[in-house]
Amino acid sequence: MYVDMTMEEVMEGIRRLEKLEDNLSKKKVKKSHPQLMKNALYYFSDWEKAKDKSIS
Fold first, then answer.
1. What span, in angstroms and rounded, lies between the C-alpha atoms of 45 and 56?
2. Are 10 and 53 in contact (CB under 8 A)?
3. The whole model's pTM is what?
4. First to last CA, the chain
5. What is the pLDDT of residues 33-53, one digit of tens each?
6. Which residues contact 55 (CB under 8 A, 6 or more apart)?
7. DSSP letter assigned to residue 3
8. How far is CA 2 from the centre of its chain?
9. Is the model's pLDDT at 27 over the cut of 90?
10. Element (H, E) at 37
C-alpha cells in the first residue's frame, strides 16, 4: 500500500478533524477524508486506535 502521509501528519489531521467536527465515525471520515483514513489504517490497526492515540 502506498502511503503519502507520515504518522505525525495523520495524527495532526485527526486532531484537526476532532476540533472541527463532533462525529468522527469511521464511515463519515472514510467518506469525507479518504486519504486520511487510508493512511490512518496503515499506521494503526484500526480507526478507534488511531483516534485514541491522536487525541489522548
1. 17
2. no
3. 0.91
4. 27
5. 999 999 999 999 999 999 999
6. 14, 15, 18
7. -
8. 16
9. yes
10. helix 34-43
